[in-house]
Amino acid sequence: MSNTPLYTRVPTSWVGPLYFKAMHDLDHSTLDVSLSAPLATYETTLFHSVGRGAKLTRLTQSLETTLISDHMTRSVLFECEHALEAAKLSEYVKANLETFQNDVVSKHSKYAKLKKIDTHIISNLLFIRFAYDTSNASGHNMSTFASDAIASELMRQFPTLKYISVSGNYCTDKKTSSVNAILGRGKHMVASMRISRELCETQLKTTPERIIDLNIKKNMIGSIIAGGVQSANAHFANMLLAFYIASGQDGANIVEGSQGITHAYLDHDDLIFTVTLPNVIVGTVGHGKDVNDASEALKTMGCDQEDGAKKMAHIAAALVLCGELSLMSALSNQHELTQAHLRLERKGK
User: Fold this and answer.
1) pTM, to two decimals
2) Terminus of the chain with fewer CB atoms < 10 Å: N or C?
3) What is the per-residue pLDDT for 151?
């Protein structure tokens, strides 16, 4: 069998334009942004659904996205002689963050910056969760290399330690977990939009009250009885995976990316519709970004520049909001979803 890479063709469409009233980062905001974004998926009805949500961003002129935090994580696992040693090492590690950054991390990476350390002890096992700023990279490898270097330094200082794994599942990478939903992994994003009653009725064929009621009963209560892990949404994963594949991201990160909460409420007779995604993992440099289609997509969206990864996270959050709003609107009308799938996928058969 040939070692030449093969490529699988996935139906791809650009949706939009998306209109952003504002993209908010912690230190600045970018106002009045209009752009389109690519989605790659075999579920081609998604193009139409997200497109309907994108139309609302233009009609309402109210879409705002906010970056809450930004860090990639990796957790190393040590076995100590006893719980007391684990507790003392935990305190030592957390007290020496700056030392690790200056003496270890900076010597192994020009871009990684250690921002936070969390620990957890089970018996004599010590789980250490390192959180890094990884610039425009998604940061999987960068955080792994840096954490492995810190672990080696700890082994040198504390020879009784046993180094079990560079990944102890407390990260948590490509798995659902409460720790990611609470502390975040990647970029923690919130997207919101204000929609008038008139636009709900004319464009979404529903009312604010029906969407709010459905969100409570389906997304909230339904997720509780299903045993959802810190998550209550209709289909975040659909938009994230389609965007990730089209832009050269690691598609497996939709596992933690699909965690998130849809919130809807009434304000002065307008529907306020929001999505919160604590684990958006995107990058504009690194493996997969040099493939022609992905590279061109990043350039077209203006994400090939400084802070391009942050801009990508804003776009991802907006796409999720558009798709979530459209689906929730359809589900608030009996038969609309099934009829749309029949019309678009089965040509009315």
Assistant:
1) 0.93
2) N
3) 96
Instruction: For residues 291 and 132, give the distance between their C-alpha atoms in angstroms, rounded to a whole number.
Output: 26
CATH 3.30.70.420, applies to 71-165: yes
Residues of the chain with CATH 3.90.770.10: 12-69+186-345
Helix ranges (DSSP H) in the chain: 45-60, 83-95, 97-100, 106-108, 140-157, 178-183, 197-203, 208-214, 223-226, 236-246, 254-257, 292-300, 308-331, 336-345
32, 201, 341, 345: the active-site residue: 341
Cβ neighbors of 27 (< 8 A, separation 6 or more) are: none
Check if 250 is active-site: yes
Where do the CATH 3.30.70.420 domains begin and end in the chain?
71-165
Look at domain 12-69+186-345 and name its CATH class.
alpha beta
Q: Are strands 261-267 and 186-195 parallel, antiparallel or unpaired?
A: unpaired
Q: How far apart are CA 258 and CA 264, in angstroms?
A: 18
Catalytic residue among 64, 70, 173, 250: 250
Low-confidence ranges of the chain (pLDDT < 50): 348-349
- pLDDT score of 294: 85
